[in-house]
Design brief:
The protein contains 2 helices and 19 strands. A hairpin with a 2-residue loop joins strand 10 and strand 11. Helix 1 runs antiparallel to helix 2. The strands form 3 sheets. Strands 2, 3, 4, 7, 8, 10 and 11 form a 7-stranded antiparallel β-sheet that branches. The chain has 2 domains: 229 residues, no CATH class; 45 residues. The radius of gyration is 22 Å and the shape is globular. It is mainly beta.
Length: 292
């Protein structure tokens, strides 16, 4: 008996995911500035020489590019922390700290999904390298922290064969974001639906090629007391969920006060697979469509 999916494409069907804006919202003041600059450039063109026109054009492109970066790093999840560690554009990514961030009611949220453990050396000269593990044309990536007074956020897009370098010296090290407080995952957004994907993470000090991971790791954060958790895999066939596989209880050693770690052997997951998770001794079920 197959459980039909609501749409043509496989998706996560339990939409209790909190509202997470990726930070690509337009800001009216920035838009007004672009209109103003456009008018100013036209007026200057009418009066300027060819050489002056060229210089004005270069200046306008520079200002507008800075405005565009400011737009991309807007977020409704909290206030940008003042100072150099605040959430802002940093070389093709949005990274930094938020204060007064939103706190939801009792809930359980996917915090991290990686091929191998999301580990790195907590050092100023460390560099984290993020790559796709799925071959998606365009993947959105979200990095974050938990259980801290200020919220660390990292957002960027990753092309099919691309990679992103994150210098720890810019935010992670001075903000004291240690590996156990760090999570990262990839996703594709289709309306309100999210398709989650694991990302590969290596570092300058930790050679990914020499330490090939054998498992996927999912980390769930929670502000509720967990009494048990289990998972199974669902094959996706002809846009429908197939018969779930065996139920696998999460070891009690992986259930902590405010997070749970699920380890899935790499060979168990195929191209079209979903993970079905039972929380709190089967009182709640959620399905996540994964793209490993």
């Amino acid at each position: 008996m197959q459980e039909k999916m609501p749409h043509a494409n496989p998706k996560r069907i339990s939409l209790r995911w909190p509202d997470e804006s990726h930070g690509i919202t337009a800001v009216s003041s920035c838009f007004s500035l672009q209109i103003f600059l456009g008018r100013a450039v036209r007026q200057l063109f009418e009066l300027a020489t060819i050489k002056t026109r060229f210089m004005v054009l270069l200046l306008s492109f520079f200002i507008l590019s800075q405005t565009s970066h400011a737009q991309q790093c807007q977020t409704a999840d909290g206030k940008v922390k003042s100072g150099t560690l605040g959430y802002k554009e940093r070389g093709g990514r949005c990274e930094g700290l938020l204060t007064d961030w939103k706190v939801s009611g009792p809930d359980i949220n996917l915090f991290s999904f990686t091929l191998g453990k999301p580990d790195y050396f907590y050092a100023a000269d460390e560099e984290i390298i993020i790559q796709q593990s799925t071959g998606t044309d365009q993947l959105q990536v979200r990095g974050q922290s938990f259980d801290m007074s200020d919220l660390y956020r990292l957002d960027f897009s990753l092309e099919k064969n691309g990679k992103k370098l994150i210098p720890a010296a810019e935010v992670l090290f001075p903000a004291i974001i240690k590996p156990e407080k760090f999570g990262i995952y990839g996703y594709s957004q289709f309306g309100k639906d999210k398709f989650f994907s694991p990302v590969k993470m290596s570092t300058k000090r930790y050679d990914f090629k020499l330490h090939k991971p054998t498992s996927y790791f999912l980390k769930f954060t929670t502000n509720m007391k967990m009494t048990g958790m289990s998972w199974s895999l669902l094959p996706i066939l002809n846009n429908a969920y197939g018969k779930p596989g065996a139920k696998n209880p999460v070891p009690s050693a992986n259930i902590y006060a405010n997070y749970v770690v699920v380890e899935i052997p790499k060979e168990m997951i195929t191209a079209k697979t979903a993970i079905q998770v039972w929380f709190d001794n089967d009182r709640r079920r959620e399905i996540y469509n994964l793209q490993p």
